Amino acid sequence: MGFFKKLFSKKERETLDQGLQKTKEGVWGKITRAVAGKSKIDDDVLDSLEEAFITSDVGVDTTLKIIDLIRDRVARDKYVGSEELRNLLCEEISGMLEKPANEKDLDDFKVPEDSKPYVIMVVGVNGVGKTTTIGKLAYQYKAAGNKVVLGAADTFRAAAIEQLDIWGERIGVPVIKQKMGSDPAAVAFDTLSSAKAQGADVVIIDTAGRLHNKIGLMNELTKIKNVMKRVVPDAPQEILLVLDGSTGQNAFEQARQFVAATEVNNLAITKLDGTSKGGVVIGISDQFKIPVKYIGLGEGKEDLQIFHPKEFVSTLFGNAI
Question: Rounded mean pLDDT of 225-246?
Answer without folding.
Answer: 94
